[in-house]
Each structure stands twice: as C-alpha cells, then as structure tokens.
Amino acid sequence: MSKIRVVRQSKFRHVYGQVAKNDQCYDDIRVSKVTWDSALCSVNPKFVAIIVDASGGGAFLILPLHKTGRIDKSYPTVCGHKGPVLDIEWCPHNDQVIASGSEDCTVMVWQIPENGLASPMSDPVVVLEGHSKRVGIISWHPTARNVLLSAGCDNNIIIWNVGTEEALITLEDMHPDIIYSACWNRDGSLICTSCKDKAIRVIDPRKEKIVAEKEKAHEGARPMRAIFLSDGNILTTGFSRMSERQLALWNMENIQEPMNIIELDTSNGVLLPFYDPDTNVVYICGKGDTSIRYFEITDESPYIHFLSIFVSKEPQRGMGYMCKRGLDVNKCEITRFYKLHERKCEPIVMTVPRKSDLFQEDLYPDTAGSDPSLEAEDWSNGKNGNPILISLKNGYVPTKHREFKVVKKNILDNKVTKKSEKSVPSQNSASETPSIKSEAKLEEILKEIKSLKDLIDSQEKRIVKLEELMSKISI
Question: Which of 282, 365, 409, 412 has its CB surrounded by the most CB atoms within 10 Å?
C-alpha cells in the first residue's frame, strides 16, 4: 500500500525568522514619509542605505552594517537632490556605488568612501538628466557594468551608460500611464514592467519592442508589481476588483492565462516581492503589514507553494533585502531583511534549521558574484551574458573593486578647477618622496610608544613602593 503524502516536502518548510536584538538595530532614524511606494531601503554586504526626511531637498543615510545603535541626528547624509528621494539601489558590481532617483527629475550616482561618510555628500559622481517628471524607479543591469535603468512619471524608461553619462536607449510611447515597477530578467536582455493601466509588458529594450503584453493582469486599481524569475516566468502582485491582494504567476510564451493566481487577504498595502533565484523562494512584504510571507516556486502544479509566514509587532514602512554575498553561511542564513519602522531599521534573519555545522551545499548553490560579465558597450551592441557565479563555501571574500570612473569626451578637461590645477605640482612632489615621509612618521610613532612604555614602568615601580609603605604602616 503506497503512502499518501499529505504535506508537501520542502527543505524551506521550517524556515524561521528572528528579529535582531536592540543593540543590533539602527535607532533614531527619521525614515522618509514620502507617499511613493518604493522599498525606501537598499542593502549590500558593506552598507545599508535608507531614504530619510530632509528639509529643503532629498537625502538618504549610508550606514556601515556594523554601525548599529542610536544614530546621531548630525550623522552625515547624501544630500545632493533638490527634491525628495524616491528610490535608491546599490550597484551589484561595486559595493561603494549607489544610484538615486528623485522628485527633482534627476538620477544621481554616488561613490561612497570605503568606511562610509565622514561628512555630508552633496556632489555626485554622475548626474543623469533626461526625465521631464519625477524619477520613481532605479534598477541596475544584473550583468553589464555601468548600465542603469530609470523610469519616471513622464511614462518613459531611459537606459543609461553611467560611465559616459549618456542615454543609450529611451523607451517612449510604450506606457500610457505611470510605471509602477520595472525589472530586468536574469541575463538583462528583457525588461518586465507594470503600469497604472493594469497591464504587464515584457520589453526588448535594444529592439525597442514589446515582446509580450497582458492587459488587466490584476483588475484592482491599486499599484501592481512584476518581477522576472530565473526560468523566465513572471511573478506579479496586485489587487482584485474587490481589493483582495493577489499573487500570480505568468508564462511569457502564453501570457494571456495565469499559471496560478492566489488571493492572500484584504488590505490596502502594496505588496513588495523579493526573489531569491538560487532557492526559488519569493518573499512577499506588504507596506504597512506586520508580516512577511514566503512561497516556493516550482515546476509542478500549482507552481506557487506557500511555505510559512513571519509575524512581528510593528508595521513595516519599507524593506531592504540582502543579497546572498552578505549572508552568514555558517548559521544557515538564507536571507536577511532590513525592516523600516517610523524611526528605526531592524534586521530580520531568516534561517533554515540544520543540525550539522558543515557547509550546506543544497542551501547555497553557486550565486551571482560582484564581477560583471559584460561591459556597457558589449550589451549595447547586442551581446548577452549570464551572471558570473561564485561559491560561498568558504564565506564570501570580496574582490577589490575597480574605481568607478566617468569617461566623457571633451568634457572632463573643462571640469578641472583652478584648485585642482594648483594642487598638481604639489601632488607630484609628494609622490616623489612618499617613503621618506612614511619612515619619519613611523620613527615618530615608535618613539612615542617607547616613552609611554617607560612612563608605565616608572609608574608601576612607584605603585610597588607605595604598597610596601602601606603594609608597613598597617603593621
């Protein structure tokens, strides 16, 4: 007699979430109250970036991951935008480069110092101007260096070569209304968008052509989200006509009928999907919710399998999602969220319980590393490249990033200021004698260390004498 399997087996069935202790949270942060439905937070293995309220413009905080506890009100911010910042995203190929989109209609790219900000940063490396209305969506290309997508409320998508400050492609007249989301596929050859007209579109940006389109993917009027999965299918979140929140899966080849559609609950909060291509698990975070639901996507019907739900006390204003490179593989950590409260950022660690301390290869297949597989020019000329994969077996070891450079013909020469011209000869003379200076500095430090040691020795001898005197007096 064959056994009947009542509960579907999955290695992620017992994933549990754990909120970080208070001393590991980031406190006293004035999280932005902007009404735009973005995640308001972006995370990488070095920094957490959070959009904050700022008077007279837009700003966001950049905190090294270890800088937990109370954040001082005077802590420096990135504050170059003239209007509120709506979206931010770290570059997947350089952990010190971040892009931001704002109500001032510009996209700015920033190079963050290795140890974080010591003073407010108001001068971006690159300013990209091309949108006529506010820019609400920023998305880096997954495999090509320096390729950045921006979508604005002018209903246009612009794809930039950040290294040359030029617009490679402008997609006009494809969206009749505001674009709610834009997402690259695994190799960056296609874009999937959701729009206020309730349609999802798959676009080939280099051919400037709509490859597939589904009208009324979700019939509700509230914002939708659409993301590509690693197998080329599309996952969407949205609302039914009765304001029930929905999760749906679509095959691009036959996009008119959903593979599956699930009704979750009735609420107003927009659902933000976060997808892990290595494990095929998708995490659904609703704005204003107190919960994170997670589902496994498989090839077997009904394709979307509910795993579990993590519930906390406070509602979430936004959410940051850590890439695999930043996780602790020794603790079987499969994802980490950075949940935004009104005045706080709280890490939430998702873990698969395992008894063995050995590396769990089934949980950590090779994942996308930080090296790009293409240059911007190659991608623009029609080449595609899959992510370059790395193993996490010995923990992630970051490679030294190439410094981010902007190359623009006949422009950089004009940007040289008088101050920098004056400093050139002094820099040259300094570079001729670096060793002499450093040796002198080292000798000075060694002398100071010796004098401090001598002082400590003399003080210790004095203490011994005084103790002897005290013992004689007490006798």
Answer: 282
